Amino acid sequence: MTTTSSVLAAAATLQEFSLFELAAYCEADPAGILKVLSSAHPLVQPRDQPTDERESGPDLLGAQRWHVVDTTGLRDLIATSAPGRTARAAAQPRRKDPLTRIRLLRAEETLISCAAEESADVRRIMAATARNYLRQFVAADSGRSDWWMLGADDEAPGGGPSESWIGPAPRLRVDFALATLTESEAMGREVAGEFLVETATDVCALVSYVEKPTDRGLADWFFNLAHELTRRPDEEVPSSAAPDRLLSALSWRRVRAQVEPNVEKAAQEAVSLLRWLVGDSDDSTPGNGAGGLFRFLGHLPDGRNRIEVYSDLLQIVPSQYEWQPEGEVVPGALTEAVADSPAASHLQQCASALEAGLVQMPFQSESALIGLAAHMFQDFAARGAVFDEGVVPRSNQARLNLLGLADVRVDRAEYGLSTSSQPVAAKWLHGGGV
Amino acid sequence: MSPVGTSPYAGLEPIMWRSLLARAAVFHAVRASLARLTDVTDQMQAVQLVLLELDLLARNLSALDCDDATAVATVVRDWKQVIVETIAGKPAGPEERTLLLELQDRIQSANVEDPFKGLFESVQAQAGALYGPSWRPSRLSVAHTLSHPRNADLKIDPYAVTAVTHLPPNAQAAEVELRIFCDKFGPAAYAAVPMLLAHEFVCHVPARQDKVKNDSDFAEGFLDWAAHYFLDRWAGKIDPQLAPAARRHADRLKGVLERRPDAPEVHARAMGHLAADNLVAWLEGDLELSPEESEARVARLAVQLNVLDRPLDLKDRFVGFLSCADLPPQMQEALRSWVADSVKAEQLLEVDVR
Question: What number is the ipTM of this complex?
C-alpha cells in the first residue's frame, strides 16, 4: 500500500470530505494528503477556492472540503499508483467455510439470548439471524452455496419446517423449530399444537444426553415459548376456563423449575403437558375444558374412588383420610389418585370452592390465579386442622411454593417455616397420603 | 503529577499507581525499542534479567512514601544501573549488547508525564476526527485488577491489561477504563494499550446502542475489524516511536483473543471479522475495487452503522448475512446500490431474506 493509493482510495470511499476526515483513513497527515489530492486534480477538487496554507494556517486547510469529480478515473489512477496490487479476479474457487461449527453455536447462542430480550420486534430479528446461521450451517455441511434458498418454499402448515433437508438430528430440528417458534410468538402468530408436541419430543431426545451447556438454555427457551404459545391473552380467556388455566400455569412453571436440576425430566413433563393441552378435541382452550380441578372417574370394587384432582390439594388432606397417587395427568398440576370416600369428598369440596373463587376473580392473569389458590389454601387448612393439626404446616409449605411460582417474595418465618436456604420457587411436592 | 499519598485515578491506590507509573514511564521512554524487546526477550537471558529487575524495582516502591517524580526517578536511576552492570557483565551476543545499549540510552528520556493519558488523548483525537459530529467525548480511568484478565499464562498471553467503556445514563460522555494487572504489566502489555484504546474508541464510545451485548457480532466483531484497520493507519500519528510495537502487538493480541476457548464473545469476534473480510473480498472480486478502497469502504460502513439509532440485533443480522462468502442476491444488489451512493448505509440493514 503506498501513501498515494491509500489517500486516493480513501477519497474514492468518502467522495466528499475535509482533509481531517480523510486523514482518519490513511497514515498521511493533512499536508501529505493535500499533495496527493493536488496531484490527482481534476479527478478530485476542492469545493472552495484553493487556499494558500501560508495565509490560512493548517487548521483551516484541514477543514477545507474536497469532493471526487470522477470516481472511475480516480479508480484507474489508484490502480496505476499501486500496480503490484490488483483486485482479485471475480471468479474464485469456492472457499471452504472456516466457521461452519461456529455458525451452529452462534445460532444457538442467539436463540438462548431471546429469553432476555423484552422487545418482540427485536426477538423477531434475532430469530431471523439465528435462522440465517442455521441455513448457512446446513448449506456448508452439504456443499451448497445458496443457503438463503434452504427452506424458503417448504414450511409446513402451522409454521413448522417440513424439512427433509434438516435431517434426523434432533439438535438441528430443535434449533430450526425454536427459530420458527420465536418468530411466531413475537408476531402473535398461532402455532399448530402438533408441531409443539413434535418439538418437545425432539427436545427430549436432545437433552437425553446433555452435550453442551447450551442444551439446557435451548430447552428452557422452548418451554418458555411453548408456554406463551399455548395460552391465550388474559382478556380473551373466559372466566369459566380459569381452573384449567391454573393447572396449565402451574405445570409450565414447575416444568421450567426442573430445567436446572433435571432437564431430562423437565422435557418429558413438557411432552405430557403439551399432549394434554393439545388434547383430542378441536377446542384450543388449554386442557380442552375437560374436568377442572376435580373429576370423579369411578368406583373401585373395594369401595375406594378413582379421582383426578388438582395435585396441591393432596398435600392438605387430613392424615386420617386415605389416598394414594396413581400417576400424573398433567405434570405438577393434576394427579390421578385413589382415595377413600372421606378423602374424595374433602378434595371435591376444596376443589369446588377453589374453582368458584377462580371463576369469580376479576383478574385472570396466571399470577393472580396462583395467588388466589395460595390464599384459599389458608381456608382449606383451617377446615382440615379440625381433624389433623399437621394440615396447617403442610398448607403453609404448599402456599409458599405457590407464591414462589407466582414470583412473589415471601418471608418464610411468616409461614412458620425455617429460614434455612431453600429455593422460593417451588419444588414439586410428591404425594403423601396413606 | 500526584503528590505523596494520592493517585490521579480513583480506582487505583496511590502505591499501585506509583508502581504502574514507574513501569509505564520506562516503557514509554524505551518505546522505540519495544518491538524488538518483546520479540527477543525469550532468547536473551540478560534482557530477561533486566526486565525482571525492573519488575522488582517497581514493586519495591511500595516501601517508599514518595511522589510521582521521586518514584519514577528512583526506578529509572536504579534500572539504568542494572543495565550498566549487565552490559559490563558481557552478555552473550552482539545483538543483546546492542539492545541493552539502546535501552541505556533511551531511558535517559524518561519523565514523570502520565503515558496512559498521553496515549488516551492521542487515540481519542484520531477517533474524534473519524466520527466527527457523532463523536462522544470521554475521559480516562485506570484501575488495578488482582489477576490477568483472561487468567492466562503470561508466556502465551502477556497482555495483562484490558479496557471497558462505561456509558452513563445521560450518554453525553463516556468513561474508558483501563484495567491493569499491575504486577505483571510488561512491555508487551504497554505496547497493546493503543489497540485496546482504539477498540474502545472505534467500537463503543460513539456507539448508538439499545443494549450492552458482549457477544454482538457487529459491536465486538465487525467493528473490531474496523478498529484494527484504523489503528494500523493511526499508529504513526499517535506515537511514531511506539508505532511498530503498537502494530505488532495489536496483531498478536488479536491472535491471543482468537485462540480463547469457546465462548459467545469469541464466536462473535470471529464472525464479525469474517464478515468484514468477506465484504472486502466481494468488493474486490465483484465490483473490482482496489484492495485499499475495498477495505476503506468496509471500515467506513462499520463507522456509519455504529452511529445509527437502530437495534443492535438488526446490525448483528446484517453481519450474519456477510459472514457467509455467498451473499444472497438481494444483499448483493443492495451493496451495489450502496457503493454507487444511491442507497444509504441504513438501508442495508433492512435487507432480509426469508
Answer: 0.91
